[in-house]
Amino acid sequence: METENQGCGFSDKKDHQQQEITQTLGHIANKILVMSGKGGVGKSSVAAYLALTLSKRGHKVGLMDVDLHGPSIPRILGLHGNILPGKHDGKGRPVIYSPNLQVISIETLLGENKDVATIWRGPLKIGVIRQFISDLEWGDLDYLIVDSPPGTGDEPLTVAQTIPDAKALIVTTPQEISLADVRKSINFCRQVKMEILGLVENMSGLMCPHCGKQIDLFGANGGRVTAQRENLRLLGSIPLDPKVVEQSDQGSTAFLADDRLPFAEAFGKLVDEVEKIISAGSGARTN
Question: Which residue among 44, 70, 85, 230 is least crowded, i.e. fewest CB within 10 A of its CB?
Fold first, then answer.
C-alpha cells in the first residue's frame, strides 16, 4: 500500500504566486513607497500627484493604493471604473486613468459599495497586497508608486518584504508631533533595510492671498532640520493652497499645470528631485 504524501497543494500555490510577483516586478524599473508617520499630512495626495506628474512627463506609471481601510486615491484623482479581465486567465487589469497611468485600489474592487467598511486582520491584508502585484497585468512600467497607510504596520511591512528594492519617500509636516512620528518611519525603513529617497515637508506654509506673504501655520523648517539630523535629503517643501484644496475635493488635478501657483511650482521641483535621484541610480527593468 502506497503511503506517498501528496500534500495539500498550498505550498505549490504560494510558490506560483511568488513566481508571478517576481516576474511582474522584473518589468517595473523603479518602486517608490510613499509613507508617513501619522495621518493627516497629505501623504496620499503626494503619492497621487507624484504618479500623475511622472506620467505626464512621459513615464509609464502604476499607482497602487494599499491603504485598505481608508483608500483615498480614487477620490483624489476623480477616478471612475473598475478592474477589467486581463488577457490571461485569472488575471485582471488595473484601472486606466490615462495612457501612461494605471491605478489599483481596494475601492475599485467594491463596485457601488464604496462606503463598505473593510474589517480585515493582518493575513488577509497581506494576501490582498500580494495579489495586487501577482494577479494584475501591470506590463512594463518606469515607476510603481505605492501609497501606504500611516504608520509602520502590516501594509508597509508587506510592501517592504514583497518589493525588496522599493525606496521610501516619507511625508511629514513642519509641526513637532508629525516630526516625532516621522522619525519612527525613518527607523522602520532602516530596520527593514529600505533605502530612503528623502523627506517631503507638506503644508509648509500658507501663501496669504492678499499680500503674498507666507504664513507658517504649523511652524517652519521642521522637515529641513529633521532631514539634516537624520542625514537625509529634503526633496521638497510643499505649501498649502486653498485653490488646490478646493479643486482636489472635486477630484480635479488641473492645478498641477498652473505654473502660477506656488504649489504647482514646488511640486514640480519635488518631482525633478525624484527623477534626478532615480536617474543617478540608473533604475532599469530587469527583463
Answer: 85
Judge whether 176 and 218 are in contact, CB under 8 Å: no
CA distances from 20 to 91, 185, 227, 249, 260 (A): 11, 29, 37, 37, 45
Model's pTM, two decimal places?
0.90
Please tell me the distance from the alpha carbon of residue 138 to that of residue 88, in angstroms, as a whole number: 12
The predicted pLDDT at position 286 comes to 34
Cβ pair 76, 101 in contact under 8 A: no
What number of residues does the chain have?
Answer: 287
Work out whether strand 141-147 and strand 61-65 pair parallel, antiparallel, or are unpaired: parallel
C-alpha cell at 247: 479643486
* Alpha carbons 66 and 83: distance in angstroms, whole number: 15
The three-class DSSP label of residue 164 is coil
Q: What Cα–Cα distance (Å) separates residue 176 from each residue in 179, 217, 223, 225, 232?
A: 5, 12, 9, 11, 18
- Here the contacts of 156-160 (C-beta below 8 Å, separation 24 or greater) are 156/33, 156/35, 156/188, 157/192, 158/66, 158/125, 158/126, 158/129, 158/130, 159/33, 159/66, 159/129, 160/33, 160/189, 160/192, 160/194
Reading the block at residue 34, the C-alpha cell is 510613499
Where do the domains of the chain lie, and which CATH numbers do they carry? 20-281 (3.40.50.300)
Name the grid cell of 282.
540608473
DSSP secondary structure letter of residue 261? S
CB neighbours of 285 closer than 8 A, spacing ≥ 6? 26, 27, 28, 29, 140, 141
Helix (H, G, I), strand (E, B) or coil at 128: helix
Residues linked to residue 172 through DSSP beta bridges, in sequence order:
201
The x, y and z cell numbers of residue 149, run together, are: 497607510
Asked whether the beta carbons of 142 and 54 are under 8 A apart, the reply is yes
Identity of the amino acid at 286: T
Gap between the Cα atoms of 44 and 26, Å rounded? 25
What local confidence, expressed as pLDDT, does residue 57 receive? 97
What confidence tier does 2 reach under pLDDT thresholds 50, 70, 90?
Answer: very low
For residue 181, the surrounding DSSP H or E stretch is helix 176-191
